[in-house]
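Fold it.
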Amino acid sequence: MTTTARADAYGRVMQTLRDLGPSKLLPAEQETIREAADVLFFAEDILGDESATEALVGIQDLTTRLVEADRWSGERAEQLLSDIVACGPAYSPTPAS
């Protein structure tokens, strides 16, 4: 993914935080989202970067909790997750032999 595409995704995440953060997210949840976007944006290799992997797991857990608690729609959570993933470098999982 190009740096421009990653920057655009990062901008969408920050816009989501501005638009929905104060009314739909607790401060700690906002910080989790911000930190994940930051870590992924500056990562060079998702699979080789433990911080990036942890950020992805944390965001998946957060979006799942938001949906299960009926605080966010599945569609909104999926969009956030997609935008955060897009902040990071592209990767191709190695196929199993």
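Residues 92-97 have pLDDT under 50 and may be disordered.
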